[in-house]
Specification:
Elements: H1 6-16, H2 31-37, E1 44-47, E2 50-53, H3 59-79, E3 82-86, E4 90-92, E5 100-101, E6 105-109, E7 120-122, E8 127-131, H4 137-141, H5 143-151, E9 155-160, E10 165-171, E11 177-183, E12 187-189, E13 197-199, H6 211-218
Parallel strand pairs: 4-7, 8-9
Antiparallel strand pairs: 1-2, 3-6, 4-5, 6-8, 9-10, 10-11, 12-13
Amino acid sequence: MAGFDEDELKETAARYRPEAGRPVPPGKMSFEEFLAWGDEDTWAEWVDGEVTLLSPAATKHQRINVFLSSFLSNYVLLKKLGQVLTAPFVIRLPEPVGHGREPDIIFIREENLAHLRPTYFAGAPDLVVEITSPESLARDRGEKFKEYERAGVPEYWLVDPDKEEAEFYCLSDHGRYSVVMAGREGIYRSRVIAGLRLKIEWLWADPPLAGIEALAELGVLPQGRQ
């Protein structure tokens, strides 16, 4: 998918970027207009030409996000496997889905980084993580689940801070998600991040676990950093 012309985005931004306190523009807009309207602090998604604002995350959600982001991004960087990105950052799912979603965390393999644009990722990430909230639960389990499956996202993690349960889905040979593991404890071995093992109990640790502590427990830190 080709990137958008920067001059086009700037011109559209002048028409669509809201002033402080102004609501989301009514009606439909193109993906280019959506990118121009938003910025790095905008928590929103683009679905069927319309903007959906996302609610601020609760404390439990944030704690899990901080841990997983640190753990995954440092593991991936140490192993030189690709890149981990966190919200707010938009992915433009491939057609026929085509929606602009904003997952909590994504992983992109090294060989797929060519699809990374300055303000969005064009295509299906190799891993999507959604940390649910009461407001997002139906969306994460329903429409997003189906969209990620249809778009060909190989691995999808659903983490529920309130129930302290995690579900791990992988695409089957038939292009459908099947649950590989679910629960509040145990060790999950990722199928897309080579060698990654996640102890599910780490997600609910109180006080929260530092990502580097988990990496040390896995024995993947280089000498001098443990």
